[in-house]
Design goal:
The protein is mainly β. The chain contains one helix and 19 strands. The longest helix is centred in the N-terminal third of the chain and has 4 residues, at 37-40. Residues 1-26 form the signal peptide.
Length: 299
């Protein structure tokens, strides 16, 4: 039986990394939920799998109010590769190409694009139950966000942190995940904690905890529908050591989407997220998020 590669509902980037006024903004640093699920996949793992993946994310947010309001539009295209060293150990890497546009209340606009920060991930699954049909899998997730992204500058000066592709902050992260298979159903649960270091322009992102719940129902072996919930709670960000009042808090988003598999090797998924919990500090407003994911198994 074939299990669909899902669109991770964790597509909300920088929902809690916001600020009160244009002089002290915070660029996006990470996303709600398990942003690396495309590379891990929900299929039952096998040794020797080499996977390439592309995630396309479109999102927008508004931060601040009145004369200090700022809108941010983001298009993030993330290329990734993973390799299964064994049935219990998978290694992966992701690197995003990001384009951002910010608009202030005075109608001033700024746009930039470039490579963002790379993510290195390892999934280890010591718990496996129900062989040979394999009903349950559980394990740990080890990750590291590396500040490999570009800092975009014009006329010799770095552009506003909000329009930069990424924050340029080192971020070790640790999590756990669980999968339950009972055709035509699949249940996936994961959680991760991010330990952020200081980024560029004296911007220090707050540590964040994320959690994802994804349910999947296979209409047939090649098509599935998905419903999920992603949560994120983050500490306030800091600028020059001063807490940003309009950052941090708790956000929850509901995801709905579809997934399909073509020619056994290609998985495609698409869906949208809608915010349902917005217990965020200060003036922060996140719009719906759209996402398209493709994964191809070379072997």
């Amino acid at each position: 039986m074939i299990w669909m590669h899902p669109l991770r509902a964790a597509a909300c980037a920088s929902l809690v990394v916001l600020a009160a006024s244009p002089p002290a903004q915070a660029c996006s640093t990470c996303k709600c939920g398990d942003y690396s699920i495309t590379l891990l996949g929900t299929e039952k793992p096998y040794a020797g799998r080499l996977r390439g993946a592309l995630d396309v994310l479109v999102r927008s947010e508004t931060q601040g109010r009145g004369a200090s309001a700022r809108e941010t539009d983001e298009w993030r295209n993330t290329l990734g590769f993973s390799y299964s060293l064994s049935e219990t150990l998978i290694l992966g890497a992701q690197w995003p190409w990001v384009r951002k546009r910010i608009r202030d209340a005075n109608l001033a606009e700024l746009e930039a694009q470039g490579w963002g920060d790379a993510d290195l991930v390892a999934w280890w699954s010591p718990y496996r139950s129900g062989d040979p049909s394999l009903k349950q899998i559980a394990g740990l997730r080890f990750g590291l966000r590396v500040p490999t992204g570009e800092e975009i500058a014009r006329n010799g000066s770095a552009l506003d942190i909000d329009v930069q592709p990424d924050a340029g902050a080192l971020a070790p992260n640790l999590g756990a995940w669980y999968r339950y298979y009972r055709f035509p159903w699949l249940l996936s649960v994961s959680g991760t904690y991010y330990f952020y270091g200081e980024g560029r322009q004296n911007f220090d992102p707050g540590d964040a905890a994320t959690a994802s719940l994804l349910g999947q129902y296979a209409i047939d072996p090649n098509w599935a529908i998905q419903l999920g919930l992603d949560l994120r709670h983050a500490q306030r960000n800091r600028f020059d050591g001063t807490p940003d009042a309009d950052s941090g808090g708790t956000l929850g988003m509901v995801y709905t989407g579809i997934a399909a598999r073509f020619l056994q090797e290609l998985s495609v998924s698409a869906g949208a997220q809608l915010p349902v919990i917005e217990n965020l500090h200060g003036a922060q407003d996140e719009d719906a998020v759209l996402r398209l994911s493709l994964a191809y198994d070379f072997r």
